Amino acid sequence: MSRAKTLVTGATGMTGSHTVQLLLKRGHTVRVIAHNEDERSMRLQELVFYGNARVTEGGAVDLLQRLARIYLGPNADYPPAAMRNIPRLGGFNLRRFLHEY
Fold it and tell me: Which segments within 10-92 are labelled E, that is strand?
C-alpha cells in the first residue's frame, strides 16, 4: 500500500511534533513547516531521526509561494492544532490554496 505524503505545520509544538512522529512511525512521507526558532533545532532533529521527513523553515503564511512548488499534491494536511490567536481568514485562505493546487 502506498503511504501518504503529508504536510504538517506547527511541527515544533507539542501536538505537531507528536503528529509527525506517529506519521513517520507508520511509514508516511512527511513535509514539515517549522516556525519556532528556539525549539526548532532540537525538536526537528528528533523528528528527522524518525524517518522520511523534509523540513522547511518559516511560517505557513510566509511560504505560500514555496508551498506551490515544494508541497504539491499532499494527500493530507495537519494544521497546527495547538496554536492560538491565528487569524481565521488566513487559515481559510491557506486551505483553499492547498486544495486548489
Answer: 29-34, 53-57, 76-78
pTM of the model: 0.52
Q: Which tens digits make up the pLDDT trace of 36-81?
A: 655 556 666 776 666 677 776 666 665 565 666 565 665 666 665 5
Query: Residues 41, 57: contact at Cβ < 8 Å?
Result: no
CATH code of the domain containing 27: 3.40.50.720
Name the domain count of the chain: 1
Determine contact, residues 62/91, Cβ cutoff 8 Å.
no
**Domain ranges, residue 9:** 5-100
Q: What does the block give as the cell for 49?
A: 531521526
From start to end of the chain, where are the E strands?
A: 5-9, 29-34, 53-57, 76-78
